[in-house]
Amino acid sequence: MPYSDVDRFAGESIPVSDDAVPVVDAEAAAGDGPGWLRAHVGALRSVAVERGAVLVRGLELREPADAAGASRALTSELMAELEGFAPRTALPGGVYSSSQWPPDQPMCMHHELSSAARYPRWLVLSCLEQGSSGGAVSVADARAVLADLPSDVVAPFERDGWQLVRNYSPLLGVALADAFGTDDRAAVSAYCAAHGIAHEWTDAGGLRTRQTLPAVVEHPQTGERCWFNQIAFLNEWTMDPAVRELLLSEFGADGLPFTTFRGDGAALDRATVDTINEVYDRHTVPVPWRKGDLLLIDNIAAAHSRAPYRGERRVVVALGDPLARVGP
Fold it and tell me: Which residues form the signal peptide (predicted)?
């Protein structure tokens, strides 16, 4: 593949491919992946800011400990996940398994924890096993998505934000302990109150929350406007139709594990959700990763997705350098 020398940080120069998702060859790491990454972290981050993500090949990542060491080299702080939309398994070194999302269902474009009080500036994905088929990771530039969305779709969200409604129950959704780090009701209520999350405890012993969030944010480094939300991914119209109908029949419209609304609380029509997903589709770029690769994603500049897969797929996830959410 063609490469060009790109000088990105403090005199560093690394060879970066001209692919849609740039690839960096780290074979020169010679068994010291973390050391090589620390020496080139500025350059790698700069490429990720400019292009949304950068794929590092040649680190020979084989175990979660390898992924944890590489992730710590690329970030200043690894954060714990709270308010996640699917369970994960915590792994040694401050990293996690990928989300326990049904392997036969796509994980549509989203920004990691963009609905949470704290979200990662950097997302580091390490591929230890690809699976036997499928499971492709793709990215979409949030700046290009925003520019391509119709103005009449963007305007109300930029003005009023968007709302996320979630239901946590023993039968459905993420367990309280996984989402909030505790199942103590008083502690969960205190967390919700501290972060502007309206909440109520249901008669069935569950928790229902509603929060209003910004849909468009400024990139913390470049100041560019980015479409940064999970309006489409967590909306009921994005669900597989059979799954949606099953959930509605079992739990009703108020009992879905999650869905989204306009910032003023109005329901979202299917056409709006479809339009957002269609724009994402136009800007979706598959990542050509393989076993042992590491993907550094600028979580503000790029959304990411995962295709359905078969077989054993092991991906280690690191959430780096947390930022605090501000209101819409």
Answer: none
